[in-house]
Automatic annotation (TrEMBL):
<dbReference type="GO" id="GO:0000053">
    <property type="term" value="P:argininosuccinate metabolic process"/>
</dbReference>
<dbReference type="InterPro" id="IPR048267">
    <property type="entry name" value="Arginosuc_syn_N"/>
</dbReference>
<dbReference type="GO" id="GO:0005737">
    <property type="term" value="C:cytoplasm"/>
</dbReference>
<dbReference type="GO" id="GO:0005524">
    <property type="term" value="F:ATP binding"/>
</dbReference>
<dbReference type="GO" id="GO:0004055">
    <property type="term" value="F:argininosuccinate synthase activity"/>
</dbReference>
<keyword id="KW-0067">ATP-binding</keyword>
<protein>
    <recommendedName>
        <fullName>argininosuccinate synthase</fullName>
        <ecNumber>6.3.4.5</ecNumber>
    </recommendedName>
</protein>
<keyword id="KW-0028">Amino-acid biosynthesis</keyword>
<dbReference type="InterPro" id="IPR024074">
    <property type="entry name" value="AS_cat/multimer_dom_body"/>
</dbReference>
<feature type="domain" description="Arginosuccinate synthase C-terminal">
    <location>
        <begin position="258"/>
        <end position="475"/>
    </location>
</feature>
<dbReference type="InterPro" id="IPR048268">
    <property type="entry name" value="Arginosuc_syn_C"/>
</dbReference>
<comment type="pathway">
    <text>Amino-acid biosynthesis; L-arginine biosynthesis; L-arginine from L-ornithine and carbamoyl phosphate: step 2/3.</text>
</comment>
<dbReference type="InterPro" id="IPR023434">
    <property type="entry name" value="Arginosuc_synth_type_1_subfam"/>
</dbReference>
<dbReference type="Pfam" id="PF00764">
    <property type="entry name" value="Arginosuc_synth"/>
</dbReference>
<dbReference type="GO" id="GO:0000050">
    <property type="term" value="P:urea cycle"/>
</dbReference>
<keyword id="KW-0055">Arginine biosynthesis</keyword>
<feature type="domain" description="Arginosuccinate synthase-like N-terminal">
    <location>
        <begin position="87"/>
        <end position="249"/>
    </location>
</feature>
């Protein structure tokens, strides 16, 4: 288990249970009862071996959000306006929303707030000064955990191996990051003795679902508080006013334009002119990649080594998962690779427009897909592609710890056993094209594919095959012509 650093202030993403004010019974440790076999999972959140062997916690008691919430609200001698909680672990980023949530939790639930920040490769700048911010907001401490390697190894690479892409374009950058963060929050909640977790997700987005489904799966006893679904603040301007009222320093002003989410896999952009799908993004919006028009006039070649569907090397040099991805982000970004502009269907029903930068991920998807053209037969490839759609849907919907996703991942691991080899790609002004692929398990045989006759494939045999294969079409045509 990764070591914790206790610093003050937290990084955020908030979770919630609507708290009813009618029930007077507080949540006790004995009120929820889980099978003893789950103790290991409850202690560590999830168990994993190899690339993606995550266990799912199942509770023997019949639990609902309402039953858990009702036991917490309006506790005897509660100090908050909405009830009493002992200690809350808040997903904390240091931004406006999570900075405001800290005092709001204390005011409404009379609780101690422990902020939690996950380093998933969002950059050093976003982690600087968080301790001071968290303490200034009223948090008792900030827990920071480096999840970069775990994120890429156990979440990103399984999705890559599966070929999971949501709605033809989206490479699931935010979708994959939320469950690894939420899993760590469950671990931290146990370590600090918290009875609740919280996030700063709005009631209109996908992230609230991703966080909370992970909490449900790994520790259903935790109460979830999602301020954006409870409080009276209507938007960011109200949040700024609340911060000023409570003397909380905030890092943004009313002129802030884009909403961004960054991790080692991607950078997303939403808001401002992007809310109009007819408008082109501004050139200065992008941060991970240069404009393809400004990219080098000479192409660059990169060779990706792959073992069983998982990238292991760049240009012959073996690297750790996070280091490999970082290297390709740098290379791809220099050539304007991986820009995606799309209108997607959110899980909650509405459509939204977002722009994504995924330079390294775009290179890796191209490499794995191309290697599969050598190692997978037609039927296997078709079935894998069909399952990849469902896999992507489950990840997008926050169901990472769902048994169905885990079962699909077992299929993906098995079918990718022979997807080993290397792919050479040419990067040039925003495009990725394949120039070479090789594998010791290649099903491609030059002696068979050649136009020349050989011992294995006799061209004369094709005549009988065509007659039998086309028999249904021939019979239909004969019927229509009265033959």
């Amino acid at each position: 288990m990764a070591q914790l650093q206790t610093i003050s202030t937290c990084s955020s993403t908030n979770l919630l249970f609507n708290v009813s004010k009618r029930v007077k019974t507080p949540l006790s440790k004995n009120s929820l009862c889980c099978s003893k076999k789950l103790s290991v999972h409850q202690e560590h959140g999830v168990k994993s071996s190899g690339i993606n062997r995550n266990g799912v916690v199942r509770c023997s008691a019949s639990l609902t959000q309402e039953s858990i919430t009702n036991q917490v609200t309006e506790a005897p001698n509660g100090k908050g306006l909405r009830g009493k909680l002992n200690k809350v672990v808040l997903a904390y980023s240091g931004g406006l929303d999570t900075s405001v949530i800290v005092p709001w939790l204390k005011e409404n639930y009379g609780c101690e707030v422990v902020c939690f920040t996950a380093d998933v490769g969002q950059g050093v700048m976003e982690l600087e000064g968080l301790e001071a911010k968290a303490k200034a907001s009223g948090a008792s401490q900030l827990v920071v955990r480096d999840l970069s390697e775990e994120f890429v190894r156990d979440f990103v690479f399984p999705c890559l191996r599966a070929g999971a892409i949501y709605e033809r374009k989206y490479l699931l950058g935010t979708s994959m990051a939320r469950p690894v963060i939420a899993k760590a929050m469950v671990d931290v909640a146990k370590e600090v003795g918290a009875d609740a977790v919280s996030h700063g997700c709005t009631g209109k987005g996908n992230d609230q679902v991703r966080f909370e489904l992970t909490f449900f799966a790994l520790n259903p006893e935790l109460v979830v508080v999602a301020p954006w679904r409870e409080w009276d603040l209507k938007g960011r301007e109200d949040a700024i006013e609340y911060a000023k009222k409570h003397k909380i320093p905030v890092p943004v002003t009313k002129k802030s334009i884009y909403s961004r989410d960054r991790n080692l896999w991607h950078l997303s952009h939403e808001g401002d002119i992007l809310e109009d799908p007819a408008k082109e993004p501004r050139k200065d919006m992008y941060m991970m990649s240069v404009d393809p028009e400004d990219a080098p006039d000479q192409p660059e070649y990169v060779k990706i080594g792959i073992v069983s569907g998982i990238p292991v090397s760049v240009n012959g040099k073996e690297l750790s998962p996070a280091s490999l991805l970082s290297k390709l982000n740098e290379i791809g970004g220099q050539h304007g690779i991986g820009r995606i502009d799309m209108v997607e269907n959110r899980l909650v029903g509405m459509k939204s427009r977002g722009v994504y930068e995924t330079p390294g991920g775009t290179i890796l998807y191209s490499a794995v897909r191309e290697l599969e053209t050598l190692t997978l037969d037609r039927e296997s490839m078709q079935l894998k592609d069909m399952n990849a759609l469902k896999y992507a849907e489950l990840v997008y919907a926050g169901r990472w710890f769902d048994p169905l996703r885990e079962s699909l991942d077992a299929f993906m691991e098995k079918i990718s056993e022979k997807t080993t080899g290397s792919v050479t790609l040419k990067l040039y002004k925003g495009s990725v094209s394949v120039t070479g692929r090789e594998s010791p398990y290649s099903l491609y045989r030059e002696d068979i594919s050649s136009f020349e006759n050989g011992d294995i494939y006799n061209q004369a045999d094709a005549a009988g095959f065509i007659r039998l294969y086309g028999l249904p079409m021939r019979v239909r045509a004969m019927l229509e012509k009265g033959i």
